[in-house]
Sequence to fold (266 residues):
Amino acid sequence: MKIAIVGCGNMGMAFARSFIQYNLVKKEELLLIEKSKERSETLKASKEGIVVDTINEQIGDYDLVILSVKPQDFSMVAAELRTVLKEPQIVLSIMAGINIDRIQQELAHKMVVRAMPNTPAMLGMGITGFSADESIGFSKLQKIENLINATGRSVYIEDEQMLDAVTALSGSGPAYFYYVVKHMIEAGKQMGFEDSMAQLLVKQTMLGAYHLINSAEMNIDELIKAVASKGGTTEAALKTFGESGVDTGLVAGILNAEKRAKELSK
Ligand SMILES: NC(=O)C1=CN([C@@H]2O[C@H](COP(=O)(O)OP(=O)(O)OC[C@H]3O[C@@H](n4cnc5c(N)ncnc54)[C@H](OP(=O)(O)O)[C@@H]3O)[C@@H](O)[C@H]2O)C=CC1
Ligand SMILES: O=C(O)[C@@H]1CCC=N1
Fold:
């Protein structure tokens, strides 16, 4: 499959590198379109594909065109892309918020898949939700799914609107995790640890705790209970979290991310 990627930043290149790693595309058949001069120079030097800085008619030769520019840049990209796209090509968008209908309208193109990955895709450990226009048949969709799976796992989302919730939960999710980690490290430093020691204690705790979620025969509440002894230290921390609204704040924040995804659609 010949693949063109428009916007080769963090996510565009996470996809490109995963495809190359699993031999799903040859470097000679991977077109990297990147506007940023600095980034395109770096890509040229690393020889990860054919690097160009503008959209041109070459794109018409590619089976799949991936849109990984910021949602705010989409209309400008669409104005150029619609003049060079050909009917059998599939467009795969990973842009937050922008729905299939708008992509189809601005590109004047029917075959659109919309996906929402996350940054662990850089390690092949991402999770991506995706939806597709009904014009894309089963076998074509399977090919796209196989490509996405090179970046980690994927889930087909039948109701496209739910991709905004995927965006808020797993798309943005890594940042929530780092936010918690960051503030735990900060607490460690306030208690007198060096940064490196605080980091070690927190990171290994997160890693071990994550594995317990999957292997222990306990649900999340039971796992919490197993740490929080009656009248002990964990209970004291959880009481303060509750009083400061950490729990409701987290939920409200994620719902606000979903709201923002819907705003980006406009
Ligand atoms: N980061 C994340 O965690 C996730 C992001 N996404 C989505 O992925 C998309 C990309 O995000 P991300 O990789 O973080 O963003 P980046 O800013 O890292 O990458 C986007 C790149 O596209 C370039 N670009 C802009 N306009 C054009 C154009 N006309 N032609 C070619 N290249 C262009 C930008 O250049 P310049 O900087 O000069 O504008 C930039 O280098 C977004 O739509 C985002 O919503 C989805 C899931 C997770
Ligand atoms: O913050 C954003 O808008 C993008 C989408 C999901 C993660 N990053």
Remarks:
- The chain has two domains: 3-161, 173-264.
- Residues 96, 167, 171-172 surround A1CAB (ligand 2) (CB under 6 Å).
